[in-house]
Specification:
This protein is α/β, with parallel strands linked by helices. The chain contains 16 helices and 14 strands. The strands form 3 sheets. A 6-stranded parallel beta sheet has the order 7-6-8-9-10-11. Helix 4 links the parallel strand 4 and strand 5. The termini are far apart.
């Protein structure tokens, strides 16, 4: 059994080593020749999986260790009886923690002492957007969710949805949609010139979904105008070729790593491993938890003298501070033009270990119930 896999998928040997012989290749440059003799193909979002890649190969199972599937021609796979599995929700919490850290920095930058006074509009309430809404609600934020496909399908049952215009009126607007080019609700350039013009200086726009959801040229034009919003981009049009002018104008820039916590990446591998095991009729005995190493930061302690928001900010940024990724990104993009795209991919390939909030135990001595509730809502483990 021959397995061809993106070299950036973590724990390949641990999960798949006893299923077949693993051949690691670059996901960005993977070709039909690379997969010609493969039985199993494992990818991430940078590989286009379609007829051009797979026709004539012996691949019978394709797994993507990612939430998104817009890089996969699922109809062609189905018509050629090639089994497929994704990892929906695997890194949702990682993206949520990225957004929470960004909001924390934004509140501090604007002088907002209580970050929950900021309203948040979530565009796309799937695995990531839904989890973000849940955490923000527990933290006391005013949250508005816009998801027209879900609103239509659920027909008013359960969660309440608002219009895109209502979501865009919030202090923070964060995008969590798939990339769709057709249908009733396409998201390609969902944020074009007109919608970007509606955003104002006090607002924050975050995109961790797909780069093409925002029209990059229109965004650059808007950021060159007065009263432009603050913008945080983790995803970019035409990755890995980043528009230098746009990079210079956004507040924070990161190289498509919002979902790159170790827990999120390992869970993606585990979910595809489980699907492959079911496909092959094998027992799925391995779990992500058995492979996670001890975190570098295991415990933080706060006393009764600690302020709630200051303590939360310290804990959040001890686990993840996007300004570090922003600095690395800008250094990489300062290279000569022909070296920038490979540098972008290296930032992702060589991404440092980042652990989620749940890996840290928070010791609270004599603190308020409100402070305890905040840390619980964020996902930290508590020791009282």
């Amino acid at each position: 059994m021959r397995i061809v896999a993106d070299e950036n998928i973590p724990l390949l040997d641990s999960f798949f080593g006893d299923i077949g012989d693993i051949c690691r290749v670059s996901g960005r440059t993977m070709t039909a020749a690379d997969v010609q003799n493969a039985d199993i193909l494992l990818v991430r979002s940078v590989t286009r999986v379609n007829q051009a890649l797979l026709e004539g190969s012996r691949v019978r199972f394709v797994g993507t260790c990612t939430i998104g599937t817009d890089h996969v021609d699922r109809q062609w796979l189905s018509s050629n009886r090639i089994a497929f599995s994704a990892a929906p929700g695997c890194n949702a919490n990682s993206v949520v923690e990225y957004v929470l850290s960004v909001i924390s920095l934004h509140a501090e930058r604007r002088g907002v002492a209580n970050w929950s006074k900021l309203s948040v509009g979530i565009v796309g309430a799937g695995n990531v957007g839904g989890e973000l809404a849940h955490k923000l609600d527990r933290l006391g934020f005013d949250v508005l969710c816009c998801d027209p496909p879900r609103a239509e399908q659920e027909n008013g049952d359960g969660q309440e949805f608002v219009s895109l215009e209502d979501a865009m009126a919030c202090d923070v607007v964060t995008l969590h949609t798939p990339l769709t080019r057709e249908g009733d609700y396409p998201t390609l350039h969902l944020f074009g010139r007109e919608r970007l013009a509606a955003l104002r200086e006090h607002q924050l726009l975050i995109n961790t979904s797909r780069g093409e959801v925002i029209d990059g040229s229109a965004l650059l034009g808007r950021l060159e105008e007065p009263n432009a919003p603050a913008v945080v981009l983790d995803v970019w049009e035409h990755e890995p070729r980043i528009h230098a002018g746009l990079l210079d104008r956004v507040w924070l820039a990161t190289p498509h790593i919002a979902g790159y916590s170790l827990e999120g990446k390992v869970q993606g591998s585990e979910m595809v491993y489980q699907a492959l095991s079911r496909y092959m009729g094998l027992p799925a005995r391995k779990q992500a938890g058995q492979f996670l190493p001890e975190p570098a930061l295991a415990k933080l302690s706060f006393t009764s003298a600690a302020e709630e928001m200051d303590s939360a900010n310290i804990a959040i940024r001890s686990c993840y501070d996007p300004r570090r990724d922003d600095a690395r990104m800008r250094l990489a993009m300062s290279l000569p033009t022909d070296e920038q795209a490979p540098a972008f991919d290296r930032l992702r390939r060589d991404y440092p270990v980042r652990r989620e909030f749940s890996s840290v135990k928070i010791q609270l001595k004599g603190t308020s119930k409100s402070m305890q509730d905040t840390f619980r809502a964020l996902g930290f483990k508590l020791k009282l």
